């Protein structure tokens, strides 16, 4: 029996004699099947092919853990070293003894959480390597757990894992898409570990919100408003998305408001189908000439 790992999304599956027929995560319309077709690997194969974990300091009390050579979606994990223990956010697909020893020297892992199913990866392996540390996931994404295990616990809308560390379900990209609020991050001004629930864009001054990033499917205005509302009651200066360098270092609360405003403006036009079936954006064809149907309230 083997725990197969999908090479495109990095999800590790429950033990089986043969690789699964297909990957449920990749056949969903938020992901894609590699142009070479479905391919599987295992942790042993990844080790043989030279994969390893690299650790980089990000800010005091925060380390990044990445996989080299890059694998699957290419995200890196974050390890928050809080006063009452270490929390591993968005664990990656690869793990080996060298990485475990190194992280034990940094205090180990006392709890694990994940922003959304694209990053469930090898979370159970990480938990088992650290005395079966509990994994906290939003109940809304229960159906996306491909390797179940007693270490997994579900929460509803939010969960304080320990003082100053709160998981917040925001929805959007997935029903359970979540962020981790770290109150002591950014020198006590607060940081959000956001996965791709709020995706820091290339200019590192904005975030974006998508149902599918690889297939470019946007979210509705109401979904974007809900995400902003969910994080609005928390203080944060900084946002870390799931890749190296995708960080808004200062004034991130204003950046979220500015980004949501920009996003809502971009999606507020409503095309209408002509009798020919062709979409039209002509103003006189629009039923919202007195303003968009969605609440255009400004966040600035
Ligand atoms: Zn997959
Ligand atoms: Zn994703």
Describe the structure.
The protein has helices spanning 24-27, 43-48, 97-105, 123-129, 185-188, 221-232, 252-267, and strands at residues 5-6, 40-41, 52-59, 62-68, 77-82, 85-89, 111-113, 135-138, 152-155, 158-162, 165-169, 178-182, 191-195, 199-200, 207-208, 210-212, 217-218, 238-241, 247-248, 272-273, 279-280. It has 300 residues and is an alpha+beta fold. It has a single domain, classed as Ribonuclease Z/Hydroxyacylglutathione hydrolase-like (Metallo-beta-lactamase, Chain A, 4-Layer Sandwich). Strand 6, helix 3 (97-105) and strand 7 (111-113) form a beta-alpha-beta unit. Helix 6 (221-232) runs antiparallel to helix 7. The longest helix is centred in the last third of the chain and has 16 residues, at 252-267. It starts with a strand and ends in a 20-residue tail after the last strand. 38% of the residues are buried. Bound molecules: zinc ion (2 copies). The site of one zinc ion (ZN) has 4 residues, from loops. Residues 116, 118, 173, 196 line the site of one zinc ion (ZN).
Q: What are the defining features of this structure?
A:
300 residues, alpha+beta, Metallo-beta-lactamase, Chain A, 7-stranded mixed sheet, 6-stranded mixed sheet, 21 strands, globular, disordered C terminus, binds zinc ion
The ligands found in this model are: zinc ion
Order of SSEs: EHEHEEEEHEHEEEEEHEEEEEHEEHEE
Residue ranges: pLDDT <50 for 5 or more in a row? 282-300
The CATH architecture term is: 4-Layer Sandwich
Count up the domains. 1
Question: What gross morphology would you assign?
Answer: globular
CATH superfamily: Ribonuclease Z/Hydroxyacylglutathione hydrolase-like
**Strand order within the widest sheet?**
3-4-5-6-7-8-9
The helical percent reads: 10-25%
What is the C-alpha radius of gyration, as a whole number of Å? 20 Å
Mean pLDDT: 92
Instruction: Give the strand tally.
Output: 21
Strand content: 25-35%
The structure class reads: alpha+beta
Number of helices in the DSSP assignment: 7
The CATH topology name reads: Metallo-beta-lactamase, Chain A
